[in-house]
Design goal:
single chain, 37% helix, 12 strands, 14 helices, 374 residues, alpha/beta
Length: 374
């Protein structure tokens, strides 16, 4: 059975973790600090903290905003359910926003409506690796916390830069998952990176995120003026909340290998995308195309998920709902009327296997299934 999700763990990751174990220094320490430096360079942020859980990262990001008690914090209906729980635990009011059906992103219009309902901050979930309309959202003047767990590495090109990956070097066709390093598709594109638009950003490092440490999260401040606030909070964080070195070792290599892994993912995405052109189902709109991040291969299904899942399973391919852990999936009855697009996507958006270690025969099998889906 070809699993929907699989972490890309190669020899470099194994060696980093093994070295950490041999040194018997697995708690928060030197490698945690090394991960932070690597993250600062990758995300172009002013400062960062590596924490044990994504919920801790969001908790401190919201605290750093110093919102008035009882304020509304806006969340995407497709954000993971734990974000809703964190906001409630902090004593704030979660205000859940619907998304656009074509790209699963929160729109500026939805945020504006959320502000009218009392929203004073926005946690901007960049689902499926697709980047939202930052300019319109930031123009509303509210503090934004980006969630780049699926969009890490995404970039909005500067004016005059090649959008949609034009002039960028593609990965060599047919390269195996265990092949040599591929050119970075973003190497020739200059722009602003995902994670640098909000005041703060969080990047979950869980198993199914685009960068993984087997658990944990990065909490980052984009600008130098905002870092001191976060730094003062970080100084009082207990070791029990800090990311252990054994996880930091894995995450550091994952970030350094991101370009190689992403080049392979984009190669597979292009193949899959050609396959669905002859089918009944459609993908999601990516405004910046190759400058967005590839997280799995999501489809908006024309038929019911159960039929698609059963069909793929007969071909030994596992398919999962893309938003099975989302707020709307858990609270469909309560929020369905106000979040119709998100509810529909939670029932019909399916994730197909797309990760670097897939071999040629597996890719061909998945491509054929995509063409013949019910």
């Amino acid at each position: 059975m070809i699993q929907t999700f699989s972490s890309t763990i190669r020899r470099k990751e194994m060696d980093a973790v093994l070295t950490c174990m041999v040194d018997e220094k697995i708690g928060p320490g030197e490698l945690n600090a090394r991960l932070i430096q690597t993250a600062k360079e990758f995300f172009s942020c002013a400062g960062a903290v590596a924490l044990r859980t994504p919920s801790s990262a969001l908790k401190y990001a919201v605290k750093a905003l110093s919102l008035e008690a009882g304020s509304g914090v806006m969340l995407s209906a497709l954000a993971p359910l734990w974000q809703y729980a964190v906001v409630e635990d902090l004593g704030y009011k979660p205000i859940v926003l619907d998304v656009m059906a074509e790209n699963a992103q929160v729109s500026a219009e939805a945020v504006s409506e959320g502000i009218q309902k009392g929203g004073r901050a926005l946690v901007l979930r960049e689902s499926l690796g697709i980047l939202p309309d930052f300019e319109s959202i930031l123009a509303l003047g509210i503090p934004v916390i980006e969630d780049v767990s699926q969009s890490a590495g995404g970039i909005v090109p500067d004016a005059g830069q090649p959008a949609a990956g034009q002039e960028a070097k593609p990965a060599p066709a047919g390269e195996s998952a265990e092949g040599g390093s591929s050119p970075d598709a973003k190497a020739e594109v200059k722009g602003k990176k995902a994670g640098s638009f909000g005041i703060y950003s969080i990047c979950s490092l869980e198993e199914r995120d685009v960068i993984t440490a087997g658990g944990g999260a990065l909490l980052m401040a984009a600008g130098r003026r905002d870092w001191p606030v976060l730094k003062s909070l970080a100084e009082n964080i207990l070791d029990i909340e800090m990311l252990p070195d054994i996880n930091a070792a894995l995450a550091t290599v994952q970030i350094k290998e991101f370009a190689r892994n992403e080049a392979r993912r984009k190669e597979l995405y292009a193949l899959y995308n050609r396959s669905i052109m002859a089918g009944k189902n459609k993908g999601f709109v990516r405004d910046v195309d190759l400058n967005s991040t590839i997280w799995s291969f999501p489809l908006s299904l024309n038929s019911g998920f159960k039929d698609v899942k059963a069909y793929a399973q007969k071909k030994e391919i596992e398919v999962r709902l893309a938003f099975e852990d989302s707020i709307i999936a858990a609270k469909a009855e309560e929020l369905g009327a106000e979040c119709k697009n998100a509810k529909a996507l939670s029932l019909r958006a399916a994730a197909f296997p797309l990760y670097p270690r897939l071999n040629r025969s597996q890719v061909e099998k998945i491509s054929k299934v995509l063409v013949t889906l019910p």
